Amino acid sequence: MSALDAHDWRPDFAAADPTLPSWFLDDRTDLTLRSIELRMPVLLLWGDSDPISPVRVGQRLAQLLLRAELHVFPGADHSLGFTHAAEVARLIERHLACW
Fold this sequence. Notes:
The chain is of the alpha+beta class and 99 residues long. The chain has a domain at 43-99. 39% of the residues lie in helices and 12% in strands. It is built from five helices and two strands. Strands 1-2 form a two-stranded parallel sheet. It is globular and about 40 Å long.
């Protein structure tokens, strides 16, 4: 993730909730090679102003996942589900209708 300029959210998250299990914060398993095994349609929703998970992360996932569809929301950050709820809901409904 650091190679894609993603901010490491773990220290802030741990400080906000000290009861989190250590595996949640410590696991660094690289699942890149396993991602090609996923065959289901995947909807990727990204904000172009997200410091935790920059668009480059979404673009990388879109490359790795064979049936991924990436939507980038201009001006949105990591809380795009709240700030762009109507459009997010529309995309999710459309995605689920394809199943």
